[in-house]
Amino acid sequence: MTDNCPFCEIAASDRDQCIIHHNEIAFVIRDGFPVSKGHTLIIPRRHVESFFETTDSEKEALFSLLEDTKKALDIEFSPQAYNIGINDGIAAGQTVAHLHVHLIPRYEGDMKDPRGGVRGVIPEKQKY
């Protein structure tokens, strides 16, 4: 656990009400600042900043929860599509220095032209 890390604080609390799903290695919460209905985060319990620093077991646990969470969101919100993203490093927009995978449900009509998807991190290069 790292001091002042909000995700470490959640991981350390066995009774944290915001955890909606978990396994031994990772857990799932709703994003505190959602960009869509159902925007969810999959987070390793171990404090690790970068996806590239995770172990094979952590990767497997994260992707297992990603699959399970997608199925649950399909039932709860019935989105038409998803964006999956990781902001890995400050230059990529990471604001909490603890790895977290965004699972963002997408809905028809939620934006005028969704073409380019995650390429929108640099808006002028999104359309091609």
Sheet with most strands = 5 strands, antiparallel
Give the terminus-to-terminus CA distance: 43 Å
Task: State mean pLDDT (0 to 100 scale).
Answer: 93
Radius of gyration based on Cα positions: 15 Å
Report the principal-axis shape.
globular
The CATH class label is: Alpha Beta
Please indicate the count of domains.
1
Extended strand count:
5
CATH names the topology as HIT family, subunit A
SSE ordering: HEEEHEE
How much of the sequence is in beta strands?
A: 15-25%
Count of alpha/pi helices: 2
Give the second-level CATH assignment, the architecture.
2-Layer Sandwich
Biggest sheet: strand arrangement:
1-2-3-5-4
Structural class: alpha+beta
Topology:
Elements (H helix, E strand, L loop, with lengths): L5 H7 L8 E2 L3 E5 L9 E5 L11 H22 L3 E5 L15 E6 L22
Antiparallel strand pairs: 1-2, 2-3, 3-5, 4-5
Textual characterization of the structure:
The protein is globular and about 40 Å long. The chain has a single domain, classed as HIT family, subunit A. It has a five-stranded antiparallel β-sheet, covered by helices on one side. Helix content is 23%, strand content 18%. The chain has two helices and five strands; from the N terminus they run H-E-E-E-H-E-E. It is of the alpha+beta class. The chain starts with 5 loop residues before the first helix and ends in a 22-residue tail after the last strand. The model has no long low-confidence stretch (mean pLDDT 93).
What are its keywords?
2 helices, HIT family, subunit A, alpha+beta, about 130 residues, 5 strands, single chain
